[in-house]
């Protein structure tokens, strides 16, 4: 068989996806597309019934998994169950996530830690048991769903942005660590997409104490975000899911950061340009700190 024919043959083989947070939003439409194009998918949720209500019973193409992402044993079991059901995993998509809101001065420690448990430590748990499968066969793709809030800190969303900056940091590191193993790793950073994500954002005013006058514009921003923007986001999750499934069969390298959505591209470009400009402006001072040897 020629190399071209072998590549075409491989491109037709069904891929096995493992997708977290699949009962709603981006994860749900993504799993629907994976099944529709003939690939296979293990889908996780806190509530297995939600998955079976949407996608039906387990089959040759589909496996529903009840998983507590913050619990290492639960994640480990789900990866083992996926391999038992499908024989392998080709694409891992760490999608589950939510936003705790509130200003940094007053957001409760518990809400920050809970947000990190799902958005960051849940991702580490999946990678701890998922990476060896891809690394050992020297192929595959890992997509971590971050956010443009992983490149820019937005007021009122400090805890969430901190989790997504962490996701970007671990993704860059993993991409470097797996380069020689031929496993692709990318961080997808969406802007606003019309899901229940904003509706599911956790606002915790009851624990924030008395409102602080100086922060009123930020409280208003959070409120406007949760009420005014919800349902009017410009991004179509179906188009985002098309990009994600396309990445799985993309030939060649992928960028470590992929900004998705016109808003995400626009915000990120402005931020990155400003960051380069700041670096260059200060470089004559900040780059002269080596020992005089
Ligand atoms: N929509 C946007 O505008 C937007 C923008 C930037 C980034 N993102 C990111 O995209 C990803 C998907 O968000 P989405 O828009 O699809 O939101 P969504 O509609 O609220 O769905 C979020 C999914 O994450 C899981 N999840 C939420 N809170 C969880 C928790 N406490 N423990 C475990 N799982 C939890 C849910 O899984 P269950 O099945 O267990 O309920 C759910 O299926 C998230 O990582 C989010 O940060 C979204």
Automatic annotation (TrEMBL):
<comment type="similarity">
    <text>Belongs to the short-chain dehydrogenases/reductases (SDR) family.</text>
</comment>
<dbReference type="GO" id="GO:0016491">
    <property type="term" value="F:oxidoreductase activity"/>
</dbReference>
<dbReference type="Pfam" id="PF00106">
    <property type="entry name" value="adh_short"/>
</dbReference>
<dbReference type="InterPro" id="IPR002347">
    <property type="entry name" value="SDR_fam"/>
</dbReference>
<keyword id="KW-0560">Oxidoreductase</keyword>
<dbReference type="InterPro" id="IPR051911">
    <property type="entry name" value="SDR_oxidoreductase"/>
</dbReference>
<dbReference type="InterPro" id="IPR020904">
    <property type="entry name" value="Sc_DH/Rdtase_CS"/>
</dbReference>
<protein>
    <submittedName>
        <fullName>Short-chain oxidoreductase</fullName>
    </submittedName>
</protein>
<dbReference type="InterPro" id="IPR036291">
    <property type="entry name" value="NAD(P)-bd_dom_sf"/>
</dbReference>
